[in-house]
Amino acid sequence: MGRTLWLALCVFHYLKVEGWELSFVTNSKSLDLLKEDYDEFLRLLEPAVKRFRRRTNIRNTKLWQYKKSLDKLEQIPETEQAKLLEIVNRYTILNRIMDSSNSIKLKDEDLFKMVEGAFSLDDKDQKYNDAFLELSMAARFATSNKKHAHINMGTICDVVIDDVIAIECKYIHKENNLNENISYAIEQIDRRIKDGLAQYGMVAIDMSNLIDRDSLNEFSQFLFSEFYKSYPGQVSDELEVAKSIVNSNDFSVPVRNYFTRCVEAKFIEHFIESATCRDMNINTKGILIQVSSSFCIYGENIILPVPLRMMTHFINPKLSSEDNEEIKNIIGSLCSGI
């Protein structure tokens, strides 16, 4: 029997270090819809690529290779399928900021970076991730509950929201550089405020390159197998049963907790007790922490590739209770963004 592919898009939203508040939503998207979204991404990106470097043909880049791999997904080794779906799904986030109907000021140079680098299903350490983090943060704010936000990516600051919030973004390529990157971003925010670009700022980091994917795979597969073995009644449709398990709180909550604890542990280890945290001034209201990863669930005749996206946050403990609540509400509104 041929294996059936089902794409479960698990979106892990926001939490806070003190108490680790967390919202968790699981959505599903068909493979056909994902292909349509990725085709739209390529269509929207191509004009910017041409403007920045006229002779570049997007069909000769890694992005087109991802498209061709997606079209023959069932021919790809099972362990690689979730990685491909994760990558493709990440890129489609940018559709909402490249649409001509919005007024976001983007740099063609930043968009061109999406085509740079070699084709790889292990792309977490590629340089394009730095620019992608900036663009994805713009996408989060553009589609948040904050109506008609003015987003500017045309200044020296990575992202400026409503001429009020300066977002400085750092993709963490190495674990030992996490604290150093946060410290530098805080210094940048101080300069942005001094130069009149914004009134306050937030640091955005991406810790995707630090996640132990094998550990996540092992934990999720073990948990799924236990639930599948104890599933009540006769299993007539393995796919539907698997979808039911993955979408249940009994499965999603432990996976969520395990995944978030892995992120928490690394963040706390390097930042919470550091001089950077102690010396953090109130110009920087908080730190947004973005992570993407994936795992596969295997049954006898099915595969469920599950890409994950999560955003957590740390709020500066030096803020007043009023400012703390305001920042919490702003960050909370980003939950609907991705």
Question: Can you describe what's shown?
Answer:
The protein is α/β, with parallel strands linked by helices and 338 residues long. It has one domain. The chain contains 12 helices and 9 strands. Strands 1, 2, 3, 4, 5, 6, 7, 8 and 9 form a 9-stranded mixed beta sheet that branches. Strand 8 (284-298) and strand 9 form a beta hairpin. The protein is globular. The two termini are 35 Å apart. Residues 1-28 have low confidence and may be disordered.
Give a quick set of tags describing it.
disordered N terminus; 338 residues; alpha/beta; 12 helices; single chain; 46% helix; nine-stranded mixed beta sheet
Q: For the record, give the distance between the C-alpha atoms at the N and C termini, rounded to a whole number.
A: 35 Å
Count structural domains. Answer: 1
Radius of gyration: 20 Å
Quick one: overall form?
globular
Average residue-wise pLDDT: 84
Total number of beta strands: 9
Q: In oligomeric terms, what are we looking at?
A: single chain
The main pleated sheet reads as: 9 strands, mixed
Q: Bin the helical content.
A: 40-55%
- List the uncertain runs: 1-28
The secondary-structure element order is EEEHHHHHHEEEHEHHHHEEH
Strand content: 15-25%
Put simply, the count of helices is 12
What would you call the structural class? alpha/beta
